[in-house]
From TrEMBL:
Belongs to the class-III pyridoxal-phosphate-dependent aminotransferase family. Gene3D superfamilies: Aspartate Aminotransferase, domain 1, Type I PLP-dependent aspartate aminotransferase-like (Major domain). InterPro entries: Aminotrans_3 (IPR005814), Aminotrans_3_PPA_site (IPR049704), Class-III_PLP-dep_AT (IPR050103), PyrdxlP-dep_Trfase (IPR015424), PyrdxlP-dep_Trfase_major (IPR015421), PyrdxlP-dep_Trfase_small (IPR015422). This is Aspartate aminotransferase family protein. SUPFAM superfamilies: PLP-dependent transferases. It comes from Muriicola soli.
Length: 375
């Protein structure tokens, strides 16, 4: 048997990792400024994270949601307090795609409607309704195209008003910092308009925080930069620091019923331990403040690079836009400078998504290396 060949791979085999450093099988070290798609939030191999998971697996690693799991309640309390969303309810699952799938499904249940409004350059996952709400025809199979989704452009208030007023929309799904699309952001006034229209027309507002959540933007959630209140918030990626975890935060106006949602693996004991460890480290090491500070330092350094046309993003969810496609630059940073960065749907954007405990010295290393590759 062979692997199903769907990933173009760099010829690198990581063997170990600590903090923001990855070491391959030959002993070569790499500076990780991408965190495996923004997954590594508190650094590779954080000692508290390792201890939490080891201690838990010595007790029990998994059982289904048919029994009590006190870790879920501990997680719910801590997540509500740290995020500032204490009045929401939590449903746990396993990934960002599953989180958005459940969010869209719940919105449809709640409203009795089926059409979704999403935005151009969005990315919400690869499952049925989530991928249909993703603005990339190449990953939408015919079976996904049965979903009713309308794609709009940020700031087009007239189109938004017109579509929502038709009365058949169950949800508006929004990334307030687009991830895969390339770090584009709506204005606060546009976000406020979305929230007001959703409230007026009984449409569920879903904030996709899969990549931007858990402190990456400098606030716990990126939508909190815009003073809006979503009805559902989807979370994953940095939530488990590499352990597969996802979830949705659900406003109390949406009623729970037995059997409405379900999952086999979601909220298992190890997943809860991993997420609790992340929350504890975020709080104890003040990593949201660090994301803001290091993000500002990154932007100041980027201003000194004349080839950078635009600096995008907030906190440690960052992008550098160039006047050329960055595929070769990204490849050279990996192979020549031993630095991991990321690409985007916008082929001129280089994405930087490091662990939130990264230090200024690592940013200095990146810009020294970047300038060498741009000479």
């Amino acid at each position: 048997m062979e692997l199903f060949d769907v990933y173009p791979l760099y010829n690198i085999t990581p063997a170990s990792a600590r903090g923001v450093i990855i070491k391959d099988e030959s002993g070569q070290e790499y500076l990780d400024l991408y965190g495996g798609h923004a997954v590594i939030s508190i650094g590779h191999g954080h000692p508290h994270y390792i201890k939490r998971i080891k201690n838990q697996i010595d007790k029990i690693g998994f059982y289904s949601n048919a029994v009590h799991n006190p870790l879920q309640h501990e997680l719910t309390e801590k997540l509500g307090r740290i995020s500032g969303c204490d009045d929401y309810h939590l449903f746990l699952c396993n990934s960002g795609a599953e989180a958005n799938e459940n969010a869209l499904k719940l919105a449809s249940f709640h409203t009795g409607k089926s059409r979704v409004i999403a935005f151009k350059n969005s990315f919400h996952g690869r499952t049925s309704a989530a991928v249909a709400s993703t603005d990339n025809p190449a990953i939408n199979a015919p079976i996904n195209r049965q979903q009713q989704v309308t794609f709009l452009t940020f700031e087009d208030i007239d189109a938004l008003r017109k579509e929502v007023a038709k009365g058949d929309v169950c949800a508006v799904i929004l990334e307030t910092i687009q991830g895969v699309g390339g770090l584009d952001e709506p204005s606060s006034s546009f976000c406020a308009e979305i929230a007001e229209l959703c409230k007026k027309h009984q449409v569920v507002l879903i904030a996709d925080e899969v990549q931007s959540g858990f402190g990456r933007s400098g606030k716990f959630f990126a939508f909190q930069h815009h003073n809006i209140t979503p009805d559902i918030i989807s979370i994953a990626k940095g939530m488990g620091n590499g352990f597969p975890v996802g979830g949705i935060l659900i406003h109390p106006k949406i009623e729970a019923k037995y059997g409405l949602l379900g999952t086999t693996f979601g909220g298992n004991h190890l997943a809860c331990a991993a997420t609790l460890a992340v929350l504890e480290v975020l709080e104890e090491e003040n990593l949201m403040a660090n994301a803001t500070e290091i993000g500002a330092y990154f932007k100041e350094c980027a201003k000194q690079v004349p080839q950078v046309k635009r600096i995008k993003g907030k906190g440690l969810m960052l992008g550098l836009e160039f006047g050329f496609e960055v595929a070769d630059l990204r490849k050279n940073l990996i192979l020549n400078q031993h630095i991991f960065t990321g690409s985007a749907k916008d082929k001129k954007v280089l994405r930087v998504l490091p662990a939130l405990n990264i230090e200024k010295v690592h940013i200095d290393t990146f810009f020294t290396s970047l300038k060498q590759e741009l000479e």
